[in-house]
Amino acid sequence: MRALVFQDVKQLGCESIADAAIVDPGDAVVQVRLAAVCGSDLHIYRGHEAGIDAGTAMGHEFVGEVVAVGKDVERIRVGDQVLAPFTTSCGDCFYCRGGLTARCERGQLFGWVEQGEGLHGGQAEAIRVPMADSTLERLPDGVPVETALLAGDVLSTGCFGAERAGAGPGATIAVIGCGPVGLMAVFSAVRLGAARVFAIDTVPERLEQARELGAEPVDFAAASPPEVLRQATHGRGADGVVEAVGTPQATRGAVDLVRPGGTIAAVGVHNEPQFALSPGEAYDKNLTYVAGRCSARHYMDRVIPWLRDGVDLGGIFSHRLSLEEGVHAYRIFDEKLEGCTKVLLKP
Ligand SMILES: [Zn+2]
Ligand SMILES: [Zn+2]
Hints:
By secondary structure, the chain is an alpha/beta fold. The chain folds into two domains: 2-153 and 295-346, Medium-chain alcohol dehydrogenases, catalytic domain (Quinone Oxidoreductase, Chain A, domain 1, Alpha-Beta Complex), CATH 3.90.180; 158-291, Rossmann fold, CATH 3.40.50.720. Helices cover 28% and strands 26% of the residues. The protein contains twelve helices and 17 strands. The protein has helices spanning 39-45, 94-97, 132-135, 145-150, 154-164, 180-191, 204-212, 225-232, 248-257, 279-284, 296-307, 326-334; strands at residues 2-8, 11-16, 28-37, 61-69, 81-83, 112-114, 117-119, 126-129, 137-138, 172-176, 196-201, 216-219, 238-243, 258-266, 288-291, 319-322, 343-346. The strands form four sheets. Strands 3, 4, 5, 8, 9, 16 and 17 form a seven-stranded mixed sheet that branches. α5 packs across α6 (180-191) and α5 crosses α11 (296-307). The longest helix has 12 residues, at 180-191. It is globular, with a radius of gyration of 20 Å. 51% of the residues are buried.
C-alpha cells in the first residue's frame, strides 16, 4: 500500500510499504478515507521530536472504513465508517476509567515507530488500529466527514483546553494562537458558555475565522492584548487563558493576560527545557497552570454531540490534496506558503 513516510528531517516520501494487517486479536484495519496533517506532525518533520524510524507512515488524524477485524473485536464491525483519536486506549485501565485515555497503560500514538516498536500513521491507504473496540468510534450520522475527523484531535484538544481554562457561564477566556487548535478552543469556549472569548494572533485570516466562531479578535501587532483584556474585565484580566502555541513567548503572554487566581491551560506542545514563568510569579498571582496531551478518546464523546446540529468546521482546512502530493503538503504547511493552515489528504 502507499503511505507518506518519514525518511529524515524535512524529508518525507510517498512510498510503498507493507500492507496494514491484523497482528493482535483486538486489531482492526481501517481503509483511510481522509487523513489530516497536524501541527504536531511538524515537530517530527522538523526534527524537534527525534527517534522515529525511517519508513514510518506519518500522521494520527484519520477517518475511514473498517475492512478487517481480529477475532476478539466485538463492537466494531467490517464496513463501519470510523474515526479515531490520535492514541489508542484500552478503555479499562486506571487511567482510561478516569477519562485520562491519553495516558492509557497500553496506549500508543499513531504515526510513531521507534526501533521497530509502535504504530504506523494514518497518512496512508490503510492503518492498523489496536484495541479497536475501545479506540475507534463510528462516524456520527449527519456530521460532515471533514468535521468528524477534527473530533479525533484538534476539536477534542480545543475543548480540553477551553474546559481546563475554566470556560463556562460568565467566564472571560483568552485564546493565544489561532491555528486549528486555537480556533477549536474558541469554538469550544463559546459552546461551554463563556461570556466573552478573545482570540489573539496576528494573521488576519485566522483572526477572521476566530471571529466567525464567536471570538473577539485581537491582533497583537496592532493592539496590546493585556490592555484589551483589562479593559474588558474591570482591570482584572482573563479568568482563563488557553495557550495553543507551545513557545516560551506564548507562556509569557498567558501570564500577562490572566487575572490573579486564574488558570492557564497549555495545550501547545512545548519543547523548551524550563518553564517561562517563575515560581514567584505563579505564587504572586495565585495561578493554576495545567498542561498535557488531550485524552482525545474521552473528549470525542464530549464534542461529537456539538456537531450533530449541522455544524460544519471544514473551513479550517485550507488545502485538500492527494496522498501523492503529501510531500508538497508538508512543505507548504511547514513554511506557511499558499495560505496553508491545515491540509487534508485523500489517499
Ligand atoms: Zn493532531
Ligand atoms: Zn487504558
